[in-house]
């Protein structure tokens, strides 16, 4: 009997979702059974009447109709699939399907006897003692009295009532407890239930779990806010009439929720990656899910604000660009970490990001706008539509006698870093772009992308050419030091995702590059730092990666602020080039920082982005303006 009762009592959730998704009133779907089955959910509900020796599927007796029978809509599809899949519901997953049959008619005894006869014709499909992967049958609605449970085969289980006193034997036949949500709360699914109602909901869950059973609420709000709340409260079954959307919300759950200091052993395994990257970065290996669990929150640097907003000449400018980093990404990282360095800055503006030829920009158009002060078309790198090169901020500062640098946690030939030293009408022309490094405009370049320097199709060994022009060529960020020589650092670690193994890599490269530039030239410097992979996280729809990449980028912001406070003449500007993924924050926990979020696309979006500024002249970057106005405003500042 223990094996049979395990079918009633120990039904495990589908590993595809963190909860059991229950297709409520499944027969109302456009395609009953198959719509829910296609989502590989756990449980399907069928309302049935028994009349004249036939089971009819409908909610009300007046709706009984020929062609709407249990045999046609459910039994035959189930039998066919079990035959096709060699005795299991799904071909690729040995997991049972629950069929929750609601008795709508008042002839419970006749209904149950006929249903038992029907199922006993197919023991390999409905009897777990014959087939461990058999359909789990649970009866709800006009459930037989508990003292009648024993009349029926042990593979038939029953829906429980929390107000019913069951014997131990009877409780073994209970598969779950279903509760009328309206008896506990009048919540409509917006915000949260009031505190007293949350207590009642939690008490119902606790009572079910104390009996060793899962719980389902019917008559409950049915939407993302409710699903998220119910999952966080430990409600086992999500009762839904919107099965596809519910399944989509809970799919890939490890990529939709994050908390710092969680149990690393419970982290998801595998790799999350995207095929939406461009030619230069399409080989990105992805985000290792088990390496995204930070053990503790990241400490912040508190700025001195000594010269913040002061009307003083600017000696150095550090521009930090979070690729793909919109306000949602910033908000998420802030709430998860309980603070960000960039949000400690008091001067704030907003920029629009549309490119010349499109409402939604790519990184080439946006990066080039930030580099040149001109509105560029998508895929163009600091160049007009007719092939005219646009002067860049690096040209402006070079002419002012300052040194320039570019640091990216990505490929140095990708759109945003290339926009500060190269020109081309096609962002994928990496060899042409990197050849322009030979003009010597940059004193430091750091990132990944060795393929752009050796084994090039044009036969050029760019490493040797750069060495002949006075550059040190190194392959580790730790080798960037205050030596007076110019440096090109191609460190392939910088091609990898930010994770627990290399969390401070960008911050380290930023700090070392600042020290090098500051030591080289007493007249000052310009440095662009890119956090490249917030964008990759958006394309991959990987929320944990977005949080970790944003926090890693924010560590680089801290290094810029530390130097600005020591120096007193450095302007720091922090912004993004565009938002990626349409990230939407669903809900979170103010105490733990746990957050749930979803993406609405795997591409860029045109939403406005914040601009944070710090140091002398920082007050000049407030208001709402175009992205290309950032370099234009920089050029109007008093430069020391």
From TrEMBL:
Signal peptide limits: none
Keywords: Phosphoprotein
Lineage: Bacteria, Pseudomonadati, Bacteroidota, Bacteroidia, Bacteroidales
Superkingdom classification of source: Bacteria
InterPro entries assigned to the protein according to its UniProt record, in alphabetical order: AIM6_PI-PLC-like_dom, Alkaline_phosphatase, Alkaline_phosphatase_core_sf, PLC-like_Pdiesterase_TIM-brl
Pfam family, one: Alk_phosphatase
Family: Belongs to the alkaline phosphatase family.
Chain segments annotated as transmembrane: none
Source organism of the structure: Phocaeicola faecium
Annotated protein name in UniProt: Alkaline phosphatase
This protein's record includes keyword Cytoplasm: no
